Amino acid sequence: MTSSEPSPALVVSSASERDPRICVITLNRPERRNAFDNEMADAFADAVDAFENDSQFRVAILRGNGPIFCSGMDLGAFAKGERPGLDSANGFAHFVRRPRRKPMIAAVQGGAHAGGFEIVLACDLAVAEASAKFSLPEVKRGIIAAGGGAVRLPQRIPAVIAREMLFTGNAIEAERAYELGLLNAVADAGKLEDAAYNLAAQIVGNAPLAVLASKQVADDALTAGEAVAWHTNRRGWDTVLASNDALEGALAFKERRLPDWTGS
């Protein structure tokens, strides 16, 4: 790319070629494993707003360009002081706590890690390729899964498994995620788009108002007990954010070395 050529959009949104009632939102920063900095978070917020406000769209498929769905927060940007949405009312990527009226399906290739996995948890439904992996490795970087991982994962799967993922930062594979109820379907290689579309097509085939009302009721039932957890989440994030270990974790990752934890 020459200096005169415009940079590609960090988030691309368009109607599906298969059905114009389905919106396809694509995270488009493959050279950074679709990791979020402030600019990308703002672009994502605009794309979600456009989907919500366009009466043509009834459901969205969220995908990632490149070999991986999303690796979470750009730790290089974090080390420079960026906090992509984490200090906003809507949370990481301006998305994980954002009120939404319409259903959204995450379509995961490669993997969803850290904030990328938290985005999946914030979506209504999810499908993944069989080779995909999921993890919350924040403790390996000196921070916590403050984008909803520590809040939502224990609500979705057995607590001991959620704690293992949160405390070790280790990944699980797509089949295991499906067994635990984190995915609606696991697709063979090259079939992810079909799996996401088939699910979206079933949704748009139903009564629009009934789908919206059903989502609202289901969301309220799930989030009624989250208020206290989000408050605790905020306190935990503030604590680690002020620590030396948070910066050390980001720098060690960027410099490809083992972190030197001080516990301070």
Automatic annotation (TrEMBL):
| InterPro entries cross-referenced by the UniProt entry | ClpP/crotonase-like_dom_sf (IPR029045), Enoyl-CoA_hyd/isom_CS (IPR018376), Enoyl-CoA_hydra/iso (IPR001753), Enoyl-CoA_hydra_C (IPR014748)
Which PANTHER family does the entry mention? ENOYL-COA HYDRATASE, IP11341P-RELATED
Identify one Pfam family in the record: ECH_1
The protein's matches in NCBIfam families, at most eight in alphabetical order, are given as: PRK08252.1 (NF006100)
What's the source species for this entry? Arenibacterium halophilum
**Family matches, as PROSITE patterns:** ENOYL_COA_HYDRATASE (PS00166)
What is the designated name of this protein?
Crotonase/enoyl-CoA hydratase family protein
Similarity remark: Belongs to the enoyl-CoA hydratase/isomerase family.
